[in-house]
């Protein structure tokens, strides 16, 4: 995000560290005060959190600890430093199974899994904080399904275990790291029976965060405002696989498995609000 420098806080105190630009200092959400030291910072974007729906159903406690307590740590340090501009990485999961699509920011919030509950609870914390103190300016960015990598291959998804997201799973099968792609459910009420999602490129998400920061610095009365970040188009799992096969010139072997707990059939978003208020598309 051009024009912004910063400190990076990870969700884990030890363990795997993602690739980070040299201008960013890495630290932990469990010791954010020690990481920043005497540094001055003007705003915080919180990306740190666990994010697999199925895993959250099997292991909910780590999700509540990381996603909620970690964010509380950040907000507490921000408050003591009088830094009151905050962008939160939320998720389309807070909409659950939508009553209708495309989803808008005014759609019903109805979570179906612990991961979604952690995101919604942080959103509610943000609304409480801004209601109590008008100096706070906060933006909730509800991601739909991020995919892709830096065009030059500098950054991209490289999961350490079995991927929880579609694209890295497809890519690992393509290069021979895995035997086949597991498709979770082919009995949804969709055109080909597989789940439909709104897949958005990570670079478009990055520009959305730059736009959100600009909005915070130029809109004193923003309070706590939510924006959906997606493409406005739904694409099925099998359509993604077919597009990858066409681009790569190879066949992706797959097998059908049962639906994952907490997954829904169709979710994609309208992008009007982000386009109009953030100047983002």
Automatic annotation (TrEMBL):
Its EC number is 5.1.3.2. GO terms for biological process: galactose metabolic process. It comes from the Eukaryota. Its cofactor is NAD(+). It holds the Pfam family GDP_Man_Dehyd. It catalyses: UDP-alpha-D-glucose = UDP-alpha-D-galactose. GO terms for molecular function: UDP-glucose 4-epimerase activity. Keywords: Isomerase, NAD. Gene3D superfamilies: NAD(P)-binding Rossmann-like Domain, UDP-galactose 4-epimerase, domain 1. InterPro entries: NAD(P)-bd_dom, NAD(P)-bd_dom_sf, UDP_G4E. Pathway: Carbohydrate metabolism; galactose metabolism. GO terms for cellular component: cytosol. Residues 38-281 form the NAD(P)-binding domain. Belongs to the NAD(P)-dependent epimerase/dehydratase family. This is UDP-glucose 4-epimerase. It comes from Ceratodon purpureus (Fire moss).
């Amino acid at each position: 995000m051009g024009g912004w420098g910063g400190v990076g806080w990870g969700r884990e105190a030890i363990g795997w560290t993602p690739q980070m630009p040299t201008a960013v200092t890495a630290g932990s959400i469990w010791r954010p005060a020690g990481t920043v030291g005497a540094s001055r910072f003007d705003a915080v974007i919180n990306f740190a959190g666990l994010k697999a729906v199925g895993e959250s159903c099997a292991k909910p406690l780590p999700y509540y600890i990381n996603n909620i307590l970690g964010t509380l740590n950040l907000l507490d340090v921000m408050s003591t430093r009088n830094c009151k501009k905050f962008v939160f990485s939320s998720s389309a999961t807070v909409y659950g199974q939508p009553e209708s699509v495309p989803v808008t920011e005014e759609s019903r919030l109805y979570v179906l899994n612990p991961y979604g509950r952690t995101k919604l609870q942080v959103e509610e914390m943000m609304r409480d904080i801004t209601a109590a103190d008008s100096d706070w300016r906060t933006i909730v960015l509800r991601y739909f399904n991020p995919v892709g990598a830096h065009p030059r291959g500098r950054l991209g998804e490289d999961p350490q275990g079995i991927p929880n997201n579609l694209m890295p799973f497809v890519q690992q099968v393509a290069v021979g790291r895995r035997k086949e792609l597991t498709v979770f459910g082919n009995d949804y009420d969709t055109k080909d029976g597989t789940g439909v999602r709104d897949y958005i490129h990570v670079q478009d998400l990055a520009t959305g965060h730059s736009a959100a920061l600009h909005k915070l610095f130029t809109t004193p009365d923003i309070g706590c405002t939510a924006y959906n970040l997606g493409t406005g188009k739904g694409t099925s799992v099998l359509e993604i696989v077919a597009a990858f096969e066409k681009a790569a010139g190879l066949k992706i072997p797959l097998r059908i498995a049962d639906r994952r707990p907490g997954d829904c059939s169709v979710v994609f978003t309208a992008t009007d609000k982000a386009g109009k208020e953030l100047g983002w598309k």
